[in-house]
Amino acid sequence: MSGPSSSTNPPTDPPSIETPAPNPEKGHQLYACGHCGRRYSRPEHLQRHVQTHTLGRRFACGICGKTFARADLKKRHETNHENDDSKKRRRTTTALNSGRVTHACKACAAARVKCQEEKPCQRCTRRGLTCVSSDAGSAAAMNLVHLSASARSNDDEYESGPSTGPAPTSFPLDQTSLYGQTVQLQSQPQSRSGTPNTGDLTRSEASSSQQPDADQLPFCDFLRDVLYEQQYDQPARMPDNTGLDVLDFCNDTNMELSDMDFGLLDHWNAGGTGPNNLNAIPAQADTPRSDNSADVAHAHIRQNLVTAWDVSPWRWDPVAKDNAFGEQGNLPVSKKDVASLQAEASQGGLRRVVDQRLDFAARDGVLALVLGACQPDAMSSRISGSFPSADLLDTMLHVFLNSHTNQVSDYIHFPTFKLNEQEPEWIAGAAAAGAVLTPIPTLRKFGYALQEAIRIVMPKRFEENNESILNIGLIHAIVIGQDTGLWSGNRRKMEIAECHVNIPTTMMRYRGKFQRSTYPMLSVTAADEGANLEQKWRTWVDMEKWKRFVFHLFLRDSQQSMTALTNPVMSYAELTLPLPASKELWYAKTARDWKHAYLRREDGHVKRAPSVGDLFRDLNLLAENRHRLDVQLSAAIYLQAYWLLILEYRNLCSSYRIRSYTQDPYGNTNSLLNARRHQLLQDLQTFKVTTMNWPEITAQERLLLNQLMMALHISIDDLQLFAGKEGDEQAHRAFHVLQQWVESVDSRAAIWHAGQVLRFAKLFPLAQLKNFYAVGVHHAALAIWTYGVIKKAGTKQDVSSQHEKIYTDGPESMGIQRYINTGQGLPVFRGPASRNGVSEATIENPKAGMEAIHEILQANFGGANRMAPAIVENLCVLIRQLDFYLQNMASQDTSTALVATTTVVSTVLFLVVARALLYPVQPKTIRNPLKLGVYDKANADKVKNLVYQPDQFPGARDVETPYGSTRVYEFGPEDGEKILFVHGISTPCITLAPIALALSKRGYRVMLFDLFGRGFSDGVADIPHDARLYVSQMLLVLASSPLAWTGTNAFRLVGYSLGGGIAIHFANAFPNLVRDLVLLAPAGLIRAASFGRVSRFLFVSGLVPERILAVATRHRLQKPIAASARPSPVAPVEPVTTPPLNVVEAEVNPASGKAVTPLEKRVMEYVRWAVTHHQGFVPAFMSSIRFAPLMEQHDAWAKLAQRAPGTTAILLARTDEIINPDDYRRDALSLVGGEQHVRWRILPGSHDFVMTNPQDILREIQDMWETKA
């Protein structure tokens, strides 16, 4: 909202009836209302008060119809209704003789007479006046929905209302939070002449005998019938965003800094947050949706797709309150210390592009500029007392400079750049650009306010001294501010910036900066040294800075033309200057480095580098001069210039009203245009083939190339017309044209290139898919959506099973060419990679397609929980709503038969969905984290501190088995005695690391592996995790070794916990293989009381749905686990309420009262990490609880007595929480033949003694083997 108004300006709105008398203490209160003069001591109180003037009583009670100016008052009022009986509740419709109406019409408001809720009102009808609802407050909230009491009337009342005027309308107050701001769709009156009222729609839809012609239907009716055959589909309301403000944000939102914003800015000034912490600060929570249950009128829902273009970001309708000073309230920040040493220390996390730090003199220069733009003067004192510190401005500057180094057209020469020598306008503009790049809403608002202030004062600088047009720093400042505005997503800022883009262009055009003669070749020799060399380098740098800056403006101009489909300001024909020099020359830090690179790259060249026009004549010049040029920037210049050729072709097609895929009404004209189109496609294809294997060409250029080729196969303007940009008539016309397009080769070629746009969008660096490139993804989405919508109308059967899949986002293949030429195949594309794999969407399913594209955009910024730039967020909104509005058009008035049918179908669907959700069908193999890319380089920082790494042990290998992959480690002397280890239920083999590493150092050959579903082994979902599965896995592991692990007494076997129970079954099955068997706290005879009666029942009974049990298990495993105390051997208490995780607790937690070792702590952290990142871990754990040899294995233990005496060792822990030594002695010792047959030892420690007491275990093992030897 605007800043405080001057007291000399009369109020534009009539005073509120609730305006109080001025406060006698107003002299002590700083903030005054410009309408009524009331004063407040805090800005948020003034803000809330002004809304009562500008926004009106827009919050209506859904029970009695009473309206309020604030949402909290309405909520409190509705809460009071909960205690009312039915007699005390008022009607939801407004009586004729009721009191004040919600909104009076303009005529009645001007005459100050009573109006009515029904429009047209009786007074206007009687006097023959035009009854138009008052739009007071729309200037302050351009897209705000004004709810009226009549909006809650039922369909019958609405249908029977007067038909001589527009019916009262309302929309649900759906809200969306973009950076903590609220964006809402502006209410539009139903005034289109071709739109019938609800009653007409109902009657026409109810008649099944009459099939109206598509040309006679309103666009929304016609499009609904195109899309949906099943008339009973009733999709749910979209939960978030309303309106199609494609690139707009914050234009209609409150830009005032709140208390929270002041607190955050104060925190930053005091050093609480530096660049290294920007990602750690959580974004502000989304604004809660208003819980408005009023149904939207049927016809209005279906017209949203058409009328939403009226609030397009390129259609700004300025009002009186829009001005350059409206954001000054965002400039003041906290009054606390702005030069804290903590802030300086915390800025180490952001890469410093330049060594200099912004000094206080430069900061004061920025402040002086801002104060010069302030109006009124009262704001100056607030700003000067709380302007950001030099450290905070320095942080913003380096955010911008880091972003600048990542863009294709970088024009700042950092080796000669001096931060504190820049013009104050440049510093302010760069700081504003950096502020809006941060993920913090408060800093973004400050950045836009600073950008607005610099835009105001900049013309004065040039008017004071016209020679300033030769100052490249000042022109840089203009362009930086314009770049910020052009991609701000704010309609006002975008239009103002676009209006001024020709200013720097004109300055440089008339200074000759576009001409080749301005950039002569320099004569550089090996003998150049000292001041002479330094002078040549500086001369070259000055020319190259201007050259790159010119091309930056050209790229921006062309991108803006592609975005808005408008004519550019610059022409490729006037750019005769050479293309930019190589990055090696541009980044050379010293004159000597530059000379060596120059001599190497320019050796033998007597001509200057080619221009963009030269590339049009001969593309081979790009390859011939590849070593001299900045190839990436030159390719981008060539492609953006090519857009101007495509735009010329499209303008001719539009003038003659012909398309390459329609019939030719003009004969030779179409032939000429088709020949031109063929030449354009051939040139772009030549560029694609020429640069196919060039590493300099990145995903950005590949995306642009395919976007251009898509534009040659389909007119983006036709797609927008079909989406309702210019209303019903033009949408009908576009539909008939696009019907021919869908059946042509052009449509399939366009879909292929749209898929390629998505392919390269997924390859963008993190947080770089924004601005123009995000718009390119939107164009691709619009093409895919249109093709799917119209194709669906002509397809009467499911073709998904009739054709092979054609991946439009994959590499080119014979299948792609066959699909484009003949239409054979089912076109699909893939979403971004995630933990759940990669989703696929068919082109002919618009809903799935839009969801996948929405995920692609958000995935580039770290997912839905991270704050993307405003333009990306609004494009995401648009893409989601493309399908949302079409679904709402499918809703029909229900009948009795329809209700019955829907009930049956819904019940069946509910049962099917419930079964699918509660008892999910798992794949046979669940991929481990390595296969899912969790340990890729991009995630290195997230996993580097985990205790278990892929290279944890030497000799790592992945063994592919019929059940899935198994991670195996084998190390130690090849001729050493062999030992195989088997770990426990919840941890990978890392728990056995102390023992295994120690034995390998003593000369043993050691093998460890991860059981299925643990560590780096795949999960097995279709087979019970019982002894048979694990014994088979052990055999496959042994067979994978290049050494012989078979034969008589081939190896020794060590099993821990669950691994001990598995080792017993293996030794019983293959007694000759196992030389010695060592069981460390082995499972097999664990008593059921250790699990708990209830827990055991839940796991074994099968009555609890699998998904619910998995969620509960996952939740419990992720919580910090405190080890249970050992139950008393005399009277064991059954832990009925304890979840069945005591085994896990014992494996990773110390006993009660024991200190946690570093290995234990890290293993505990890893287990919680594995729950989230190894999707096979929880299913494997649950299956092991059910089927693994944990309990009642007396028969298997009894077979150990058949082994040779002295070849079996059972080592237990004295304070084991799970394996009670006394119980095991009583139950197991007699089974295995007694102490004279086996080595039975009780060692210090608890169940995790393999980590806490490895030396005791090693001593017993070594003593056993040495005794035998």
UniProtKB/TrEMBL annotation:
Q: Which residues form the Zn(2)-C6 fungal-type domain?
A: 104-133
Q: Which PROSITE patterns match?
A: ZINC_FINGER_C2H2_1, ZINC_FINGER_C2H2_2, ZN2_CY6_FUNGAL_1, ZN2_CY6_FUNGAL_2
Region spans: Disordered = 1-24, 75-94, 152-215
InterPro entries membership? AB_hydrolase_1, AB_hydrolase_fold, Hydrolase_4, Zn2-C6_fun-type_DNA-bd_sf, Zn2Cys6_DnaBD, Znf_C2H2_sf, Znf_C2H2_type
Q: Which GO terms describe its molecular function?
A: DNA binding; DNA-binding transcription factor activity, RNA polymerase II-specific; zinc ion binding
Q: Where is the C2H2-type domain?
A: 31-58, 59-86
Q: Where is the composition biased (Low complexity)?
A: 1-10
Sequence ranges of Polar residues compositional bias: 161-213
- Name listed for the protein in its UniProt record: Uncharacterized protein
Q: Does the keyword Transcription regulation apply?
A: yes
- Pfam families referenced in this protein's UniProt entry, alphabetically: Hydrolase_4, zf-C2H2, Zn_clus
The UniProt entry, under PANTHER family, shows: TRANSCRIPTION FACTOR WITH C2H2 AND ZN(2)-CYS(6) DNA BINDING DOMAIN (EUROFUNG), TRANSCRIPTION FACTOR WITH C2H2 AND ZN(2)-CYS(6) DNA BINDING DOMAIN (EUROFUNG)-RELATED-RELATED
* Top-rank taxon: Eukaryota
Query: Has keyword Zinc-finger?
Result: yes
Which keywords does this Swiss-Prot/TrEMBL entry list?
Metal-binding, Nucleus, Transcription, Transcription regulation, Zinc, Zinc-finger
What species was this sequence derived from? Fusarium culmorum
Tell me, which GO biological process terms does this entry list?
DNA-templated transcription
